[in-house]
């Protein structure tokens, strides 16, 4: 879908200023720091970033599986921020909103393909006739018409993933949210699963939000969101190359006009603590300053006599006490 076209439509997912802090007794991890993200109907969006960047946290929050510490999440068709709903209300609303697919499929081992696909429809209280029709259409779409009576244990990894996709779509959701959908598959099997996802997008108009480390997944996205250290660093249009992100990167500007400079660029510049910014026509030029900024010397106060002691020297010149 062209970018201009998507802007005319109402988003199906809108995330505003989401923070997520995982707290345990001893540690606190800030996994998301003020993330805002919008997904439009029918879009194919990849979410990329290094391990620990916050991709799974963001997809789980988008899917209503994890509550944010703060911030708002809006799903199309629901007027309220879904993080304010009860778990039961979220489960009910999610059926119409999104189908979820993970690296490890969550199929029921003693149910066959058709039973696994239909299960979510029964749980959602859909009519049997509609469940049967959708199941037939979906099993056909994912190419498993010949395997209807097979249990998950009798299927290959790629086939299981395709059953999981059909099962995720039984309630006719608007979006598929997937985390590392090809990570446990070999590249060729992964390609087949991605072909099916493309077909779901094309034939059914379902939007895709795919968190991934894989080039083969990102290659198919129309838009890629790059996340680093819990912040949306940049977006990319299609034809992204994970080995050369700088080639397509558009740095994101957040609500407070802040941008994050990618770690790889900062490393090349030897991690400067400040940069000179100049507006040249319509361009902002960032460069290393030629002169050092005056940085005030750090000082400590001697606890005994109150004299200021430079941080390099540990002993107070006035009273000889060791300053810590
Ligand atoms: N349940 C949890 N409790 C505490 N910290 C967590 C929890 N889940 C994730 N984290 C931390 O939050 C940060 C983001 O994790 P997340 O799983 O979202 O990253 P990711 O981008 O999906 O990484 P990967 O590519 O390895 O899957 C990491 O520092 C991680 O250690
Ligand atoms: Mg992850």
List the helices and strands and how they pair.
Layout: H1 3-8, E1 13-23, E2 28-39, E3 44-48, H2 55-62, E4 70-75, H3 87-97, E5 98-102, H4 113-123, H5 128-141, H6 157-168, E6 175-179, H7 187-204, E7 207-211, H8 215-218, E8 223-228, E9 231-236, E10 250-251, H9 263-268, E11 276-280, E12 283-287, E13 299-301, E14 308-310
Parallel strand pairs: 3-7, 3-8, 5-6, 6-7
Antiparallel strand pairs: 1-2, 1-4, 8-9, 9-10, 11-12, 13-14
Helix pairs in contact: 4-5, 4-6, 6-7
The structure holds adenosine-5'-triphosphate and magnesium ion.
Adenosine-5'-triphosphate binds at residues 22, 29, 31, 49, 51-57, 213.
Shape: elongated
Radius of gyration: 25 Å
Residue runs with pLDDT of under 50 for 5 or more positions: none
What is the total number of structural domains? 3
What hetero molecules are in the model? adenosine-5'-triphosphate, magnesium ion
With helices defined by DSSP (H or I, 4 residues minimum), what is the helix count? 9
The CATH topology of the largest domain: Rossmann fold
Biggest sheet record: 7 strands, mixed
Q: Could you give the count of β-strands?
A: 14
Strand content: 15-25%
CATH architecture of the largest domain: 3-Layer(aba) Sandwich
Structural class: alpha/beta
Oligomer: single chain
**Strand order of the biggest β-sheet:** 5-6-7-3-8-9-10
Gap between N and C termini: 61 Å
